[in-house]
Amino acid sequence: MHDTSVHAAAHHGPPTTFLRKHVFSQDHKVIGKQYYALALVAAYVGMFLSWLMRIHLAWTNAAIPGLQLLSQSGAPGGVMTPELYLQLLTMHGTIMVFFVLTTAPFAAFGNYFLPIQVGAEDMPFPRFNMMSFWVTFTAFLFLMASFFVGDGPSLGGWTQYAPLNAVGSVGGPGQGSGVVLWAISIALFCVGQLLGSLNFITTTLDLRVKGMSLMRLPLTAWAWFITSCMGLTAFAVLMPACILVILDHVAGTSFFVPSGTVMNDQILPHSGGSTLLWQHLFWFFGHPEVYIAIVPGLGIVSHILLANMRRQMLSQRVLIYSMGALAILSYIVYGHHMFVSGMNPFSSLVFSFPTLVITIPSTIVVLIWTFSLYGSRLRINSASLFALGFISMFVSGGVSGFFLAQPSLDIMLHATYFVVGHFHLVMGVAAMFGIFAGTYFWFPKMAGRMMNETLGKIHFWLSFVGAYCVFMPFHYLGMAGNVRRYATFVDDFLQPLIPVHRFITIAALITGFAQLIFLFNLIYSHFRGPIASQNPWEATSLEWSTPTPVPWNNFDKHPVVYHDPYQYGVKSSVGDYVMQASPEQVETEHDEK
Amino acid sequence: MRTKKTLFVFSTLLMSSSLMFAGSVTGKVTYTGTPAKQKPIDMSKEPSCAKQHATPITGENVVTGANNSLENVVVYVSAGANDDGKVPSQAVTYDQKGCQYVPHVLPMHTNQELKISNSDQTSHNIHPLAKVNQEWNKSQPPGTPPITQKYEKEEFIPVKCNIHPWMHGYFVVLKTNHYDVSKSGGEFKLPDLPPGKYTLTAWHEDYGTQTADVTITGAESKDVNFTFKAKAY
Amino acid sequence: MAKLFAVTIFVIAILSAIPILRHTWVAPEDISTHGALIDKQMSETMAEAGISFLAAQFVLGFFIWKFSNRPADAKITKFPGGAKGLVIAAFLVVGIEVLALGVFGAKAWANVYFTPPSSDAMPIQAQAGQFAFYFRYPGPDKKFGGIHPEMVNEGTQNIFGLDPEHDVDARDDIVAAEMAVPVNKEIHLLMHAKDVGHSFFVRELRLQQDFVPGLDVTLHFTATKVGKYEIVCTQLCGLGHYNMKAYLNVMPQADFDAWLKQQAGQ
User: Fold this and answer.
1) Cβ–Cβ below 8 Å for B162 and A264
2) How many of the other CB atoms lie within 10 Å of CB of C27?
3) How far is the C-alpha of A434 from the C-alpha of A295, rounded, in Å?
C-alpha cells in the first residue's frame, strides 16, 4: 500500500509559482482550504438571505432600507414582493444545501484531512481534484449570476418541482433565465462532486500507508468514504435530470411538461412530459444528499468527541456499520418526500417502512456516542461543545422523523413548517455544528494558529440556544398547519401565528449575529492567534503526527501505522494516549485489529 | 432665450390655427345579436376586494348599455394621420382597485409613460402578455410606489393578474394620438382632425375589428358608426 | 461550563415539551369521518417521539454533567451494557416502536386512500391554476362537459375551457370559486391541474393531496360539521402561491340545494 502513495506523489512536484501554489493548486490541502473559503462565503450569503426572508415574514409590509438596491423591481420602495421572497428562498436553499452543507464537511475537511489521515501524500488524481474545485466555483458563479440576469433567480425553491421548472418565463419571474442558470450551476456542481468522490474513494482504498487497515481508518475517513460512495451515485442522477431541464428550456423538448398545460390563457407547446418523473429523479438524489450533508458530520463529531472523552468508543465497528446502513437505506426512503404527490398510495406505504427503519441506525449512533460519554474524562472546549451540541440537535431534529416517515401523518404535516423545522435541525443546524466543531478542532493544523476559546464559547452558547429558539417553534407552527413557502401570511387561519414568527425572526437575527463573532474569530486568529503546537489536543490520528504547518507532501517521512485510530485512556510515555504512528506497545481497552 | 420664446409663440399660433380648421369624428358603437351572459365574479378568495363591491361585479370583456350600445371599444385613426414621434409628455394611468383594472381598456401612444398604481390592500401582479413588446411580470405590494413602464411598438396587450385570475384588461399601444374608447352609451369622439383622408379602426377585445374610411375637408364633424356582431358563447 | 451546558439542555428539553403538553398550538378540530384515526396516530407518535426526545436529551445532559472535567487520574470506566446491549436495545425498543407506528399508521392511511368512494358520492371537480382554485358541479344532467385546454380564458371566465356551443354536457355545468358541499354527504373530488403542480389542503378535513399536471387524481371525504374552512395550496406554484386559496363551505343539504340553484341561475 505504501508503494502506491509514493506513486501518487510522483504525479506532481512542489509548485513554484504563486498561481500554482495558491490558485490553480493541485495540493489537496490548498484545495480543501479553497473549498472551505467557498463554503464560508456561501454560508454568509445564505444567512443574509434568510435574514431578509425572516424580517419580511414577521413584518410583511415594512420597507427594509436598502432592499431596493438589491432588486429594483423586486422591492419597490424597499417592500419585498412575493416573487423576490421566493427568489431569496430558492437561493437560500440552493446555496446552503449544495455550497455549504455538501462543500464544507465533505469537500473542504475531506480534501484536507483524508489523504493525511490515511498517510498519503496527496489524492491519486490531483488534476481532477483541482478541476473539482474550480468547476464547483464556476457553479457558484453561475448561481450568483442569476441575481443579475433577466428577471432574477428562479422562484421554484431548491427542489425545483416540475413543470414549473420547465415551462419558462411564462411561469413567473426568474423561471426563464433563472432556472436555466440554476440547472447549469447544479449540473456543474454535480461534475465537481463526481470528480471529488472518485478521488476520495480511490484515496481511501488505494493510498493507505503500511499498517493502515480499513478498520484502523479514523471514523472521519470512514464517513468521507461512505459519503463519496453516496455522492458518486446520487450526483450521477441529478446531473442528467438538470440537463433534461435545460433541454426543456432551450431545445423545445418536453421531459417534464405534460400535454394540455395552460398558462395565462395560452396552451403551452409541450406534450407528453411527466412531472412525477422529476420528483423521482430529484429525490433519488435528494435523499442521499441529506445524508451526504450529515454523514461527514457524524464522522467529525465522533473524531472530536473521542479526542475529548479520552477513551475509545464503545464500538467503532458498530458506528461504521450504522453509517453504512444509513447510506444504503437513504436510497430506498426517498419516496417519503412524495407521499401526497400523486404517486400510487401503495408506494407511499412501501417507502414508509424503510424510512421508519432508518431511525434504528440513527438511534444506534446516538446511543454509542452518549454511552461512550459514560465513565469518560470529558474535556470541554469549543470543539467538544459543538460536537455535543451536534448530538442534541441531531436527536431533536431526528425525532420529528417519526412523524414524517408516516404517510398518514404526512397528510397533516407535509409542506408545513414542521418539515422546515425538521430538516433545519437535523441537516442544517446539526451539520453546521459539525462544521464548527471541525473548524475549532482542526484550525490549529490548517492555519498553524489557535482560535480564541472565549469567543468560541460565546459563539457556541448563542448558536446553541439561538438555534433552538428558531427551529423548535417551527415544529409548533407546522403542527398548527402553517404552510411553508408562503411569502406573506394572508390566510385568516395564520394570523394568530404571526407573533410566533416575530419571535423566530428576532431569535434568527441574534443567532446570525453570533455567526459574525465566529467570522471575526476565524479571521483574527488566522493572523493573530497564538502559534499552535503540532498536537494541541493530544490526539492520535495521523494528521497530528505531522508537523504544523503541514509540509507540501504531508509527511517528512512515510508514517507506519501501529495502532487503532483512537487509543485514548491508555498509559504511554506521552500521556493517556498513543499515536497511531507510534511503535510504542501499550495495554489497550479493546484488542487491536 | 428670446428666440426660444418667439418660436414657442409662433408654434402655438400655428397649432391653434390648424385646430381652428380641424374637423372631428363622432359616432356610436353598437352590436347586433345576443351577447353571452356575463357571469358575476366570485372574489371570496380576496375578502378585502370582495367587500368593496356591494353586489358582485361581472367581467368587463363585453360591456353593453341601453339601445345595444357597446362599451370599451377603441376607435382610432389607423391610416391617414400619423403622429409618429409626437409622444405625449403626460403619463397614462392604470389603477388596480377592488381587484379590477381601472380603466378596463387603456389606449396609449408608443413610448408614452404608463403609470400603474395599486389602490388595494393586497398585492397584485401585473402581467401584460406582450408578444411584440418585451413581456414582463411584476408584483406590486400595497402601499408601494407606482410602476412606470413604456411600450415601444404598436400592440394590443392583454393584461392579467395571476394572483386574481379574474382581473383582466388591455393595454392598447397605438402610433397615434387620435383615439377614443366608447363610453357607456357607446359614443366616441375623435376631435382635432386636420383635413385629410383617414381610415378609422374600431377594436373590441372579443368581437374583433372593423374599419371605416372618412374624409375631413374642414372644420366639420363627421358621423361614423360601428356595429359589431355579438357572440352568444 | 459543563454543568451549565447540562442544565441548558434540561431547560431546553422541558421548555420544548411544554407547548406540546399544553396543546398551545394544535391543528384545528377535525370535521371529517376519516380524521379520527389520523389524530390518534398523531398523538401516539407524539408520545413516543416525545419520550425518546426527553430521554435522549436528559441522558446526554446527565452524562455531560457527571463525566466532564474530571481529574486526570479519574478512572475511565466502561458502560456496563456495552455496545452489544445498546444495539440490541435499539433494535428491540426502536424496532418495535417503528413497526407499531408503521402498521397502525398504514391503517390510517388505508382509511383515506384504499377505500373506494361509495356509488352515490357527489362528484365535484376541482381545478387548480396559478393562483386560484375553481370548482365544477355537473349540473342537472349529472355529466361534466369535456375540458378543452385551448379554450381556457380566465378573462371571459371560461376557467375550465368548456365549449358550451358544441358540447351539450357543458351547458349546465356550474363553476364556482368556492367549494360548497352538503354536510354529511360523501364527496368524490376529481382533481385537475390547469398548469403547474398545486395542492389541496384543508386542515380541518385532514386532507392534503397534490394536483398532478397531466394526471387527474381523485379523493373522497365526508365533512361532518357546517362551517367555512380554508382550502390552501401547499405546493410551490409561483409568485402568488401564498395567496392561492378558496373556501370550503359546508352547509345543510337545503342550503346547499339553494346555493346550487342560485349558482346555476347566474
Assistant:
1) yes
2) 19
3) 10
Put simply, the chain B residues between 110 and 149 with a CB less than 8 A from any chain C CB are 122-123, 125, 137, 139
Contact state of A406 with C105 under an 8 Å Cβ cutoff: yes
As a whole number of angstroms, the distance between CA A304 and CA B192 comes to 87
Chain A CA closest to residue B129: A264
The C-alpha torsion from C12 through C15 and C21 to C24, rounded to 10°, is -130
CB contact under 8 A, B147 and A76: yes
Phi, psi dihedrals of residue B229, rounded to the nearest 5°: -95, 120
Domain termination site, one of A228, A254, A280: A254
Task: Specify the DSSP element, H or E, that contains C198.
Answer: strand C198-202
- Domains present along chain B, CATH in parentheses: 15-43+56-79+179-233 (2.60.40.1120), 82-177 (2.60.40.420)
Confirm whether A234 is domain-assigned: yes
Given CB atoms, is C72 within the 8 Å cutoff of chain A? yes
Of A223, A254, A285, the position where a domain reaches its end is A254
- Quote the pLDDT of residue B5: 54
Please tell me the total number of residues recorded for chain B in this structure: 233
Cell numbers for A501, please give them. 414568527
Scanning chain B, the segments in alpha helix (DSSP H) are: 2-20, 47-50
Q: Cα separations (Å) of A407 from A344, A353, A482, C215? A: 12, 10, 18, 21
Mind listing the pLDDT tens digit for each residue in A123-135? Answer: 999 999 999 999 9
B75, B28 Cβ separation under 8 angstroms: no
Query: Does any CB of chain B come closer than 8 Å to the CB of residue A76?
Result: yes
Least confident piece of the model among A12-21, B186-195, B215-224, C223-232: A12-21
For residue C266, is pLDDT > 90? no
Q: Distance from CA of residue A446 to its chain's centroid?
A: 20
A568 in any annotated domain: yes
Query: A275 near C197, Cβ under 8 Å?
Result: yes
Number of structural domains (chain A) is 2
For B85-127, write each residue's pLDDT tens digit.
Answer: 689 999 999 999 999 999 999 999 999 999 999 999 999 999 9
Strand (E) positions, A189-319?
262-263, 266-267
Q: Match 402610433 to its residue by C-alpha cell.
A: B175
Domain membership flag for residue A66: yes
Compute the nearest-CA separation of C133 from chain B (Å).
9
Smallest CA-to-CA distance from A298 within A223, A373, A357 is with: A223
Per-residue pLDDT at A22? 87
Host domain of residue A175: 1-11+25-254
In this structure, are residues A386 and A392 in contact, taking their beta carbons and an 8 Å threshold?
A: no
Of A167, A553, A383, whose CA–CA distance to C129 is shortest? Answer: A167
Low-confidence ranges of chain A (pLDDT < 70): 1-12, 589-590, 593
For chain C, which domains are there? 2-69+79-113 (no CATH), 122-265 (2.60.40.420)
> Looking at CA atoms only, how far is residue A164 from chain B in angstroms?
14
| Cβ neighbours of A329 (radius 10 Å) | 20
C239 touches chain A (CB under 8 A): yes
The answer to whether the CB atoms of B163 and C131 lie below 8 A apart is yes
What H or E segment, with its residue span, contains residue C245? strand C245-251
Give contacts of A266 with chain B, Cβ < 8 Å.
129
Which residues on neighbouring strands pair with residue B128, listed in sequence order?
Answer: B159
Residue A453 lies in a domain: no
**Number of continuous H segments (helices) and E segments (strands) in chain C:** 6, 10
Query: Is there a contact between B21 and B219 (Cβ–Cβ < 8 Å)?
Result: yes
Over residues B51-59, mean pLDDT: 90
Strands (E), A157-209: none
- Distance between CA A451 and CA B126 in Å, rounded? 53
Alpha carbons C203 and C245: distance in angstroms, whole number:
13
| Nearest CA-CA distance, residue B225 and chain C, Å | 26
